[in-house]
Design goal:
Keywords: Oxidoreductase. By secondary structure, the chain is an alpha/beta fold. The chain has 11 helices and 9 strands. The structure holds NADPH dihydro-nicotinamide-adenine-dinucleotide phosphate.
Amino acid sequence: MNSSQSGQATLCVPDLKGKVILITGGSTGIGAAAARAFGRNGAKVALNYNASGAEAERVSDGIKASGGEAVLIQGDVTQPDASARITAEAVRAFGRIDVLVNNAGALVRRTPVDQYTDEFVDAVLDLNVKQVVRFIRDVSIQMRKQGSGGSIINVSSIAARHGGGPGSVIYAAAKGFIATATRGWAKELVKDRIRVNAVSPGVIDTPFHERYSTAEQLAAMQATIPMNRIGTSEECVGAFLYLASEELSGYVTGQIMEVNGGQYMP
Ligand code: NDP
């Protein structure tokens, strides 16, 4: 295992020091790894979580121990007023927001076509689409007020490219919405010097797959990956740091960055 797989990598991005990062779903998996990496780079992290309070505390402690600052903001992002409240709390804590990471998301449950219900479709879209739209609105308004630009990083998925695995079509389509909207928001917000990009993970070993995928399903996915292994959350971190950094990606907007071991090459 190399250092980025095991999470020991220290990726040093000087212009992130003191930057304020609001990250949704920062308690576990990819969001937690990104939050820790922002902390290691001296950023101030406003970390949203919902159910995983103890895990969020551990991420926050890690950020503080490594030289960053952290504030925890509990909240179910699917609640219509959550984005406005979480945005306001981040600004109250740190005075501004420089980077938004729209990471919270989930498959909800694997559901074949003949079992679709309005309740199921709403649940997938509420979590993977509608709350992201609200955060884009509320945080871009805040960034515009600040007048110094910003970076918004959405989280799409390889599922957006291939339509999803068994029972995950609505989730895949929701992530396709995010990829398409990322390009549109990038064009609309460029006048405010707000860059909008997305990270599109492949199959990454997080609580997501513990919840939604069997060992057989994971083995079948792995067989389609040229690197012949599942990725780690830490291996997604570089993409977030790169897209957050004005110094590294100041001329990059509207891009979907694939992190997938070669599983899909657009
Ligand atoms: P995890 O389940 O580890 O993380 C999901 C995060 O989202 C948790 O922090 C969770 O918080 C948060 N979350 C879920 N629902 C809500 C909610 N209603 N309100 C606030 N926060 C919420 O999975 P991953 O790290 O794998 O997923 C992160 C992102 O990556 C998601 O958008 C996912 O769709 C995407 N993705 C993952 C892939 C993978 O293979 N793992 C592949 C492609 C995309 P809490 O536990 O505190 O409720």
